[in-house]
Design brief:
Blueprint (H helix, E strand, L loop, with lengths): L3 E6 L3 H7 L6 E5 L9 H14 L7 E5 L8 H8 L6 E4 L4 H11 L11 E5 L2 H5 L1 H5 L7 E3 L1 H7 L14 H13 L4 E3 L9 H13 L4 E4 L5 H7 L4 H19 L5 E3 L2 E3 L1 H17 L3
Parallel strand pairs: 1-2, 1-8, 2-3, 3-4, 4-5, 5-6, 6-7, 7-8
Antiparallel strand pairs: 9-10
Helix pairs in contact: 11-12
């Protein structure tokens, strides 16, 4: 379960070192937007060194966001970053065709012990509309939504409404497609003021209500808020335990449904409660 995934500019060795102290469930070493074109090679070497010397001191997962297929830089990125300790790749501006191309590029660099999953970042109109096709590809282990470039294609800026109606369709496409593929859906990073923690919380709550299970962050201070929103509360856990007990008792009595405090409990409620308890177990380390 990945609630928070923190982007870290890979051209800053200082930030790479500080990322291991993060409370994020995963860090994403970024070779794309946060790295100027003149520092791409430096960033690649830093990622390689991080995986070799620093990675084992971080408890979470480590991903690398490579440059997009359309840039012509992806293949060179992969030569440096495909190493032990890497948990997967994030592909920006992803399309179904792009994921297939990335897979063909990475295969020759892998060993028998290393087969990297991919998180496609759907942040273009084409990518969003191809979400169902993307999630069916073999290496895809999560689907992610990126707001900034998507809004730009629509001719909008990132100052969206409080309820973020402007991206409701895109988020719904991503989360529904992720559910179809039985993989997690990861929401866009918050693009407002870094100090706006309430904005982060509001956006994370919207995403959770739409079926997302985690969210990218572009600043460490956003991570605790994201973790809180995507962690089931004590009340939710208690209710889930009650639903599981009530339904399993009903099944032992030969019933297909029961009630709990006036609410009908059937197989659907039971499966949802079991899933929530599995997520909590994962967060507690098993």
């Amino acid at each position: 379960m990945m609630r928070s995934l923190l982007f870290v500019p890979a051209n800053s060795w200082r930030l790479l070192l500080s990322s291991v102290k993060s409370e994020a469930d995963a860090v994403v070493l970024d070779l794309e937007d946060s790295v100027p074109i003149g520092e791409k090679e430096t960033a690649r070497w830093f990622v390689k060194e991080f995986l070799r010397e620093v990675r084992d001191s971080y408890r979470g997962k480590v991903f690398v966001r490579v440059n997009g297929i359309e840039t012509g830089l992806t293949e060179e990125d992969l030569k440096y970053v495909v190493n032990r300790g890497l948990d997967g790749l994030v592909l920006p501006k992803a399309t179904a065709e792009g994921v297939v191309k990335l897979t063909s590029m990475v295969k020759p660099l892998e060993s028998s012990e290393l087969r990297l999953p991919v998180i496609p970042l759907l942040e273009t109109a084409r990518g969003v509309l191809e979400a169902k096709e993307v999630v069916s590809l073999p290496r895809v282990r999560a689907l992610a939504f990126g707001m900034g470039d998507y809004l730009r294609e629509l001719g909008l800026d990132v100052n969206v409404s409080d309820q973020e109606w402007e991206v409701l369709f895109a988020r719904s496409m991503v989360s529904t497609s992720a559910a179809m593929g039985n993989v997690p859906a990861i929401d866009t990073p918050f693009l407002g003021l870094i100090i706006d923690r309430e904005g982060v919380r509001r956006q994370a709550l919207i995403a959770r209500r739409l079926g997302f299970s985690g969210k990218f962050a572009i600043h460490p201070s956003h991570v605790p808020v994201i973790n809180e929103v995507f962690t089931p509360s004590e009340t939710e856990v208690r209710e889930a335990e009650e639903i599981v007990r009530a339904y399993e008792e009903a099944v032992r009595r030969g019933l297909g449904a029961t009630s709990l405090r006036g609410m009908m409990i059937d197989r659907m409620n039971y499966e949802r409660a079991k899933r929530l308890l599995r997520e909590v177990s994962e967060l507690d380390g098993g």
